[in-house]
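Sequence, please.
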C-alpha cells in the first residue's frame, strides 16, 4: 500500500464564494441575454415577412439564410478570412501610427501646431470618397481595404491617446521630477499609465469602425472578401447567400468589439469598467 501525502485543499472564504457566484451568475445572464436577443431578431424577421408579404428575393427568410450558411460554408469562410485579415491589419497600422503621432504631438509644440489642423481637416473629407482612388492606386487586392481601415481608425486613436497624454495630472509629473525622474521615466511610469484608459477608449472605437473601412473598400472593388461575395450574390440573384455574408459581417464586427474590450479589461485593470 502506497501512502500519498495529503494535499492541502484550497480554502475559500465567504467573499471568494460570493465572487465566484456573482461571476457564474454574470456569465449565465450574458448567455441568456444573447439567446433572447437572437430569438427576438429571428422572430422579428419572420414577423416582418409575414406582415408585409415581402417576397423572398427582397428579404429571404431566416431558414433560407441559415441553409446558405451551411451549403456555402467553404466559400463564406475563405472570404471571411480575407475580410478579417483586412480589418486586423488596418487596426495594427491605424493604432500604431495613431499612437506614434500622439506621442510626437505631445512632445513637440511645433508638430502639434501643424498636425492638429491637418487632423481636423482630414475628417472633413469622407473616407468613403477615397475608396475609388485607393483602388486605382493599389488595385483590387487587400491593400486598398487595409488603407481604408487604417484611415478610419487613425483619427480616433490619435485624438484619444493625445488627450490622455496631455491631461496627465500635473502633480504626478511634478512629483516625478522632484524625485529625479528623467523625461523618458516620466513618459514610461507616469504619462503612459495615465493615458492608457483614454487610449483604450480610442481602440474600442477603432474596433467598432474598422470593419466599415474594409467592407466599403470591398464594395468599391475587390477580388475577395465578404462584401465581394455580396456583390456577386446580388448579381447572381442569390439573395440568401448575400444575407448570409451580411450575417457573418455582423458577427465578425460584434465579436471583434467584445474581444478587444475583454483584452483591454485584462491588459488595463485600472481602467474604469462599466460592463
Amino acid at each position: 500500500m502506497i501512502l500519498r501525502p495529503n494535499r492541502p485543499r484550497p480554502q475559500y472564504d465567504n467573499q471568494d464564494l460570493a465572487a465566484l457566484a456573482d461571476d457564474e451568475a454574470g456569465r449565465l445572464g450574458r448567455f441568456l441575454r444573447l439567446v433572447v436577443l437572437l430569438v427576438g431578431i429571428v422572430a422579428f424577421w419572420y414577423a416582418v415577412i409575414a406582415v408585409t408579404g415581402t417576397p423572398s428575393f427582397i428579404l429571404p427568410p431566416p431558414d433560407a439564410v441559415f441553409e446558405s450558411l451551411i451549403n456555402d460554408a467553404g466559400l463564406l469562410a475563405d472570404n471571411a478570412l480575407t475580410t478579417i485579415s483586412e480589418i486586423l491589419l488596418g487596426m495594427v497600422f491605424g493604432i500604431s501610427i495613431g499612437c506614434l503621432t500622439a506621442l510626437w504631438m505631445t512632445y513637440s509644440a511645433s508638430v502639434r501646431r501643424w498636425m492638429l489642423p491637418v487632423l481636423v481637416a482630414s475628417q472633413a473629407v469622407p473616407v468613403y470618397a477615397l475608396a475609388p482612388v485607393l483602388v486605382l492606386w493599389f488595385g483590387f487586392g487587400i491593400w486598398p481595404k487595409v488603407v481604408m481601415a487604417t484611415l478610419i481608425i487613425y483619427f480616433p486613436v490619435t485624438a484619444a491617446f493625445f488627450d490622455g497624454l496631455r491631461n496627465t495630472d500635473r502633480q504626478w509629473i511634478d512629483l516625478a521630477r522632484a524625485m529625479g525622474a528623467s523625461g523618458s521615466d516620466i513618459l514610461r511610469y507616469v504619462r503612459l499609465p495615465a493615458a492608457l484608459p483614454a487610449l483604450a477608449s480610442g481602440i474600442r472605437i477603432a474596433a467598432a469602425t474598422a470593419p466599415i473601412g474594409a467592407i466599403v473598400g470591398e464594395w468599391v472593388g475587390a477580388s475577395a472578401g465578404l462584401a465581394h461575395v455580396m456583390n456577386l450574390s446580388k448579381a447572381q440573384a442569390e439573395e440568401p447567400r448575400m444575407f448570409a455574408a451580411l450575417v457573418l459581417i455582423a458577427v465578425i464586427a460584434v465579436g471583434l468589439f467584445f474581444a478587444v474590450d475583454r483584452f483591454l479589461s485584462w491588459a488595463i485593470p485600472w481602467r474604469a469598467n462599466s460592463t
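The chain has one domain: 70-267.
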